[in-house]
Specification:
The protein has helices spanning 2-17, 23-34, 39-45, 52-80, 114-127, 142-145, 186-195, 236-251, 304-309, 326-334, 347-350, and strands at residues 132-133, 139-141, 179-181, 200-209, 221-231, 257-264, 267-276, 293-302, 318-325. With 357 residues, the protein is α+β, with helices and mostly antiparallel strands. The longest helix is centred in the N-terminal third of the chain and has 29 residues, at 52-80. It binds phenylalanine (PHE).
Length: 357
């Protein structure tokens, strides 16, 4: 014990006399005194040889010694005007402060959102058929979202789409002044027909809103790609072939399609299109509710009244329109089973699409 104390005094003097003219000397000091094989650690190891009744006092002396050594190291470091590199970058072997052989920090690359990936793929397929992209506002007036699309104020089919209306700042004087969040991108088609003469061939991608309780199968907002083609002699056969082409490009040549008669106020006749279930190949599963078919879109021939609303002569021009949900197509492509995943921004979900172009 006496001997240890003497040694400590000796070391203390040595420490305090040490200067560090350069980084190498500073590093040497650190290794000799404070390193994992340094003297401070070694003296700490002597504790076990100290008689139990003296251990407490000796422990204190040792601690002070350690703090003194650390303090001196800090003083030397500051004097050198150098910030020591983080411990991982130190090399015990070389006098250089940085070890350039250590692996670098990885650069993490973000990924594209699956809905954007699929939307862009949908757009590029229709572009090859001559469609161009049209966009419009998400806050719409009643006319462009409903009225012009053959859905007057009292039309029962308005209930098909539960609407978020915006609180008016003044009492609306007529239907056109009612503001809402668009329930479909057909409102963009209305704006295109308002501003362009046929031939018209547009697709309208965008976010739409409906007042629905959020669950795995429904959401208060989702995304659509709707299309509109108006020219002379456009027929239902053109509609079918266009959509069939889309499905084959999107899902491959094996997929089958079927059309079912349906009703939309803005098209007549109207049809919904199903594709054979990609998950179970038609055998029956949860996604297709054991029918072998999944519905992917609504479509039809543009109603003459809609054309008239925009001064397009229905005797001369005909057209078809269709609308589909990007979420649904993405669900089938990537087997996403909960709609909420798309908007939760959970990195574990999103990073699965890294590298998907
Ligand atoms: N606008 C319809 C909807 O959102 C889809 C649709 C578009 C149907 C065009 C027919 C024609 O549900």
């Amino acid at each position: 014990m006496e001997k240890l104390l003497q040694e400590l005094a000796h070391y203390r003097a040595e420490i305090q006399a040490t200067q560090a003219p350069d980084a190498a000397a500073l590093e040497a000091f650190r290794i000799r005194w404070l390193g994992t094989k340094g003297l401070v650690k070694a003296i700490m190891g002597e504790m076990k040889n100290v008689p139990a009744e003296e251990r407490k006092a000796f422990g204190q002396t040792l601690n002070e010694f350690k703090q003194m050594a650390e303090q001196h190291f800090e003083t030397l470091k500051t004097a050198l005007g150098e910030t020591a590199p983080p411990p991982a970058a130190r090399s015990a072997k070389s006098a250089t402060a940085l070890d350039y052989t250590l692996p670098g920090d990885p650069l993490t690359v973000g990924s594209r959102h699956p809905l954007n990936l699929v939307r862009d793929q949908m757009i590029s397929i229709f572009k090859r058929l001559g469609f161009v992209v049209a966009e419009g506002p998400e806050i719409e007036d009643d006319w462009h979202n409903f009225g012009a699309m053959n859905l007057p104020e009292d039309h029962p089919a308005r209930d098909m789409q539960d609407t978020f209306y915006l609180r008016p700042t003044a009492a609306p004087t007529d239907a056109q002044q009612k503001w809402l969040l668009r329930t479909h991108t057909s409102s963009v088609q209305a704006r295109v027909m308002e501003n362009q003469k046929p031939p018209i061939r547009v697709i309208c991608p965008g976010r739409v809103y409906r007042n629905e309780t959020v669950s795995a199968r429904a959401h208060c907002f989702f995304h659509q790609v709707e299309g509109l083609y108006i020219a002379e002699n456009v027929s239902f056969a053109d509609l079918k072939q266009t959509l069939y082409f889309f499905v084959q490009e999107m899902f491959g040549n094996d997929v089958k399609v079927r059309f079912r008669p349906s009703y939309f106020p803005f098209t007549e006749p109207s049809a919904e299109m199903d594709i054979s279930c990609l998950i179970c190949k038609g055998k029956g599963c949860n996604i297709c509710k054991h029918s072998g078919w999944v519905e992917i879109l609504g479509s039809g021939m543009v109603h003459p009244k809609v054309l008239e609303n925009f001064g397009i002569d229905p005797e001369r021009y005909t057209g078809f329109a269709f609308g589909m949900g990007v979420e649904r197509i993405t669900q089938l492509k990537y087997q996403v089973n909960d709609l909420r995943l798309y908007s939760q921004n959970d990195i574990r979900f999103l990073k699965q699409f890294t590298g998907v172009i």
